[in-house]
């Protein structure tokens, strides 16, 4: 079993931030909703990764936080998947440029 | 340490694969690989319960649905990467690096987590009950949203 120390913690945080930034860039430059969904899942993966050091300080609260994060993020992504299906039914495509926010068209 | 570095390397490369892949299907597969690697890092620190949660709930349910969606809506592959957006990402990376270097890594130690100790605590039982209610409410709202759209 590995120990969290000055060698392992930077590896965890750096890889977590690398995933987060890759997901961030994917979300910013995506052209369709499927890619956006993938980017969000990637960013949640980065959150899970950065939770590991919390297990050393307080294991049970960290596990509770992990459960909440995993289930709420899964719920959020489920809502996005339902929204993608509804978008496809209405617009017959899943492109970001066809999404309009409510209000008047200028 | 070598195993952790190997896992970290694979997950950074697979996250870059998500970013640079033209086809959404392959991006979804790379994303699944990244999440499985994240879960595998938990096993290196003897936290198998979170590995099970990530692999079964996140990858097993949502990840596979994403792969199925990406395979279904498999349009003409095109590169979805913009160099312009690298600027705000680079700024974010610089801010993160600054705060991480300022904070330091003063948390040495071994993970001592037991699932039996977690389940016995009444506060955490209440947390799990509330969370289950929240998830059921969320699922019901999704079903209602979908049915409303159908009618």
Whole-angstrom Rg of chain B? 20 Å
Kindly, what is the distance between the CA atoms of the first and last residues of chain B, rounded to a whole number of angstroms?
56 Å
Tell me the CATH architecture of chain A. Answer: Orthogonal Bundle
Structural class of chain B: mainly alpha
State the major sheet of chain A: none
Name the chain pair whose interface involves the most residues: A-B, 71 and 79 residues
What proportion of the residues of chain A is helical, as a percent range? over 70%
Specify the overall morphology of chain A.
Answer: elongated
Q: How would a crystallographer describe the biggest sheet of chain B? A: none
Residue windows where pLDDT falls under 50 for at least 5 positions of chain B: none
Distance between the termini of chain A: 60 Å
Oligomer: heterodimer
Task: Give an overview of the whole structure.
- The complex is a heterodimer of chains A (106) and B (151).
- Helix content of chain A is 72%, strand content 0%.
- Chain A contains 4 helices and no strands.
- The longest helix of chain A has 33 residues, at 59-91.
- The model of chain A has no long low-confidence stretch (mean pLDDT 83).
- Chain B has 6 helices and no strands.
- Chain B is mostly helical and 151 residues long.
- In chain B, α1 packs antiparallel against α2 and α2 runs antiparallel to α3.
Question: How are the SSEs ordered, and which strands pair?
Answer:
The complex is a heterodimer of chains A (106) and B (151).
Chain A: H1 8-28, H2 33-50, H3 54-57, H4 59-91
Helix pairs in contact in A: 1-2, 2-4
Chain B: H1 2-20, H2 24-44, H3 48-72, H4 86-103, H5 115-120, H6 122-150
